[in-house]
TrEMBL record:
Protein name per the record: PDGLE domain-containing protein
Record localization: Cell membrane
Residue intervals passing through the bilayer: 12-29, 41-60, 72-97, 103-125, 137-163, 183-209, 241-262, 298-322
Keyword Cell inner membrane recorded: no
Species this chain originates from: Cellulosimicrobium cellulans
Annotated Gene3D superfamilies: 1.10.1760.20
Keyword Transmembrane helix recorded: yes
Main location: membrane
Record's keyword terms, sorted: Cell membrane, Membrane, Transmembrane, Transmembrane helix, Transport
């Protein structure tokens, strides 16, 4: 659901950019106290994995495909605040390096996928865990992922109804967006549940979703927000989680990306059906070698995917490490013994 430039008018795009900036800034503020070297590593691996799997469009109907948004998955692995930052960095790399998602629409895409997708997915996951008394964390994350996709689609439809650059029948727009993205949400749910289940199996105690699962099962033994990998989680468990996510990212980006569906995704198909596809403007970086994941420069998609995963991981690790150092220095400066 990467919105291109000029689907929305300038005031609407500017508004979504401001809201997204505020939301991501708040997420960074909330995440800073939870940062540890292990969480930095896990979040970097999560970012690389989400980037890679977003390259894999899967068919959902004749002439239509979908791809992972990743907000619910990131939240289940590292919590909602780091998850929001993780998906935001994926979208930033996609927009600036691969011409995927418009530049003026970057705030819109962050709001739809990183903010709405992550927070709705996390809220739904926690709700399911309360109903099941903490059982089935992977399945709960899958339900959260399923709910997050049509929720984001509905928000886009609302934005377009208010600030779309082309007049369209609003009822038809909402119906098309919700119907196709409900089906796409099934794929999102399966991927999310599978990945979270794998991480739970190979690295118990690492995934953030285990925090509310234990709270729902046993009472408030841990904070209801996230389970933070710390002293109680072995370094080996974190390494296994990072290895699993890293291996999956490389497999998806380098190998499986060549077999991704080439049909329009849910938003593109809706735009063609409802009649606003021609409103999109070409991306400012459309002529760059890595645009369209290497297609513009004749670069093999697997090589482009490898570059993208490396950039996503490096950017996440660098920014979060800088944040961790700043937090550590601040704590040292304000401690009574300083």
């Amino acid at each position: 659901m990467h919105v291109p430039d000029h689907f929305l008018n300038d005031p609407t795009s500017a508004t979504t950019a401001v809201v997204s900036l505020a939301a991501v800034g708040y997420a960074a503020y909330r995440a800073r106290e939870d940062l540890t070297p292990r969480r930095v590593a896990l979040t970097a691996a999560t970012t690389g994995f989400v980037f890679a799997v977003q390259m894999l469009n899967y068919p959902v109907a004749s002439g239509t495909s979908g791809h992972l948004m990743g907000g619910a998955l990131a939240a289940a692995l590292v919590g909602p605040w780091l998850g929001m930052l993780s998906v935001t960095l994926v979208l930033l790399v996609q927009a600036l390096v691969f011409a995927d998602g418009g530049l003026t629409a970057l705030g819109t895409n962050v709001l739809l996928m990183a903010v709405v997708g992550t927070l709705v997915g996390w809220a739904a996951t926690r709700g399911v865990l309360r109903l099941t008394r903490g059982r089935g964390a992977a399945g709960a994350a899958g339900v959260g992922a399923f709910v997050s996709v049509p929720a984001s689609a509905a928000v886009f439809a609302g934005f377009f109804a208010v600030g779309g650059t082309v007049p369209v029948p609003v009822g038809e727009l909402v119906g098309q967006m919700l119907s196709v993205h409900t089906v796409i949400g099934l794929g999102e749910a399966l991927i999310t549940a599978g990945v979270v289940g794998l991480v739970l199996a190979v690295a118990p105690g690492v995934a953030a979703v285990e925090g509310p699962a234990r709270s729902a099962a046993n009472g408030p033994l841990v904070p209801d927000a996230v389970a933070s990998p710390g002293a109680a989680v072995s370094p080996g468990a974190v390494r296994r989680a990072v290895l699993a996510l890293g291996s999956g990212a490389l497999l998806a980006a380098v190998v499986v990306s060549s077999f991704a569906a080439a049909t329009p995704d849910g938003l593109e198909a809706t735009a063609e059906s409802v009649g606003f596809a021609d409103a999109a403007r070409d991306h400012a970086f459309a002529g760059m070698p890595l645009a369209d994941y290497g297609e513009a420069g004749g670069i093999f998609v697997g090589v482009a995917g490898l570059v993208g995963v490396a950039l996503a991981v490096a950017l996440t690790a660098g920014l979060l490490t800088a944040g961790l150092r700043a937090t550590t220095h601040r704590r040292a400066a304000t401690s009574p013994s300083a």
